[in-house]
Amino acid sequence: MSVLGFVTSFLEPARAPNKRLLNTVLFSVGLTIALVCLSCPRANASVGVVLNESLNSSVDRITGTGHSAIYFSRICPDSPVKLRLCRPDEQGSVMSNYINIGEDQPFEWNVVPLSMYLYGVEDPRNRPLFGSFKIKHLLEERYRTKYLTTYCQGTPCTTSYKAEWREMVAATMIRSVYIFVVDTTVEQDRELIAEFNSLPNRNHFNGVTNNCADFTRRVINTYFPHATNPDYINDFGMTSPKAIARSFTRYALRHPEANFRVLHFAQVPGTIKRSSECRAGTEQLYHSKKFLVPMILFADHELPVVAASYVLTGRFNPERVLEEYPSSEATEIAQAIQLAKAEQDKTRGEQLKIVQHQEQARVIGTQEEWNAYREEFDSMINEAIRGEVVADRKDLNRFFKRIDETGTPLVDGNGAVWMEIADGDGTSKVGLSASNVLAPISDSRAAYRLILARVTYVLKSPKHGRETMLEFKKDWALVGAARVKSEVSPERSAKAYIGTQSIAPASGDD
User: Fold this and answer.
1) Does residue 86 contact residue 156 with C-beta atoms inside 8 Å?
2) Would the pLDDT of 4 be above 70?
3) Is residue 404 one of the residues assigned to a domain?
4) Does 463 reside within a domain?
5) Are residues 385 and 446 in the same domain?
């Protein structure tokens, strides 16, 4: 029996004399057990449409389309250009194509392990808590020397920061990522592996007819024919990443057996410019101020058509889809609510909405919960100022920039990132990864400031740039542990403190 079936078994009308009381008790028990079950992840393999936010650079600054890729949970890289089934200890992969991957051969696609794609490291426990171009370039070079030397030996692959294989390493340092996921069978995965391993991996990228979204469409439709489709009206004859995500979501919701859910990975706090929500063609015209005046002057008759097309057919908000379907259980409950509505069972529908709200809150959090964290964190910052951990709030806001300017990032043999900071008395070292920020050799006061700066960023971020509540609670646990560790190691504070004075950037800074 599914989790939802278990819950709804408690919602059947009671036939005992104390019907209302019994229903209430049974529902409370069922809800408690269900929420415990929901905390246990499912083991189903899956495929997903990856929707990357816009970088606000190059052509993307004008179009705002972002980027599209494909996530697999059961397919892993045999090499960057060959596929195989994952081993039990592996977490899946992301396959993507670009206008120019930049390697020695013009490959159509590369595939990298999921954690490498998201964080630039093999083990997600070593994910960096802070992002900068210095750190990202360090992780890119580590990936190149460990996994890409066969395919990336000459220039510009080894030297150019425009080589797009780099976007597949620590992608969350430069933008937020959504993944729209459904289940697959092992037979489907095997068929896709056989097909793509047998076909020539040669680039035929074309921005109009064969772009990254067209590639995603091709892969997903190999699994589920006609599951993804372009929106030629709103994207002016092209295929956009957002159209693929929207059509795939609609397909998944029409197929309850797909076990649909949405994953979100927020951009890592740091010094890199924040990404923005990706847009379809008419949506960009509808929202963008830089296009509004030219449209009014030169296309005043077309402007109402563009606006109507977007409003009536082009709307799709990834963040709202995430909030509604943050897990497969939430999707299952939503489907049961629709069934109860069709059966005009108002009582059962209301009870199911309680379960749905609890599951959504577990993953995403409620506005009240986020506000409570902000209030408690504000008191924590005041305490840190009184204890001279930080000079003031402005000093904390400048921490990322200052540590990036004065420090030298390093990666150890396990893939964890460190920052070495030089001063007049020598050097100190602080861990920048979740696994080492509180390590014995990580400077306790600098680590505390780093985590305070990270949490400050998260609590100020808009929803699309903020991590989920599940992820934030990991940060919150680090805050408490770092505060205790800094209090028992105060003697290191002078050396670790990154002062408020202006310091010239290190040579070679990006």
Assistant:
1) no
2) no
3) yes
4) yes
5) yes
Peptide bond into 156 cis (omega under 30): yes
Residue 167 φ/ψ region, left for φ over 0, alpha for ψ in the -120 to 50 degree band, beta for the rest: alpha
Mean pLDDT of 343-349: 95
Range of the domain at 392: 367-496
In angstroms, the CA 447 to CA 437 distance is 6
Same domain, 248 and 127: yes
Tell me the pLDDT of the chain averaged across its residues.
Answer: 85
Domain edge (last residue) among 325, 353, 386: 325
Mean pLDDT, to the nearest integer, of 210-223?
97
3-state helix, strand, coil in the chain (%, to 5): 50, 15, 35
Specify the residue for token string 């001279």: 388
Is 251 in the same domain as 371? no
Torsion of CA 80, 432, 130, 71, to 10 degrees: 30
Residue 7, in any domain of the structure: no
Q: Determine the pLDDT at residue 489.
A: 65
- Residue 437: both structure tokens together: 């920020």
Tally of domains within the chain: 2
Query: CA-CA distances (angstroms) from residue 183 to 63, 141, 180, 431, 457?
Result: 32, 34, 11, 37, 34
Task: Report pLDDT digits (tens) over 244-269.
Answer: 999 999 999 999 999 999 999 999 99
Neighbours of 4 (CB within 10 A): 21
CA pair distance 58, 53, nearest whole angstrom: 14
> Does some domain include residue 225?
yes
Q: Which of 507, 494, 427 is nearest to 134 (CA)?
A: 507
- Asked whether 306 and 282 are in contact (CB, 8 A), the reply is yes
**376 with 270, same domain?**
no
Do both 468 and 413 map to the same domain?
yes
H-run or E-run covering 5: helix 3-8
The pTM (predicted TM-score) of the whole model is 0.86
Q: Which residues pair with 451 in a beta bridge?
A: none
Identify whether residues 381 and 440 lie together within a single domain: yes
92 and 201 together in one domain: yes
- Whether residue 234 sits in one domain with residue 91: yes
pLDDT tens sequence across 98-150: 999 999 999 999 999 999 999 999 999 999 999 999 999 999 999 999 999 99
Residue located via tokens 């403190």: 497
Q: Are 47 and 71 in contact (CB under 8 A)?
A: yes
pLDDT digits (tens, 9 = 90+) for 440-492: 999 999 999 999 999 999 999 999 999 999 999 999 999 999 999 988 765 44
Tokens of 451: 């985590």
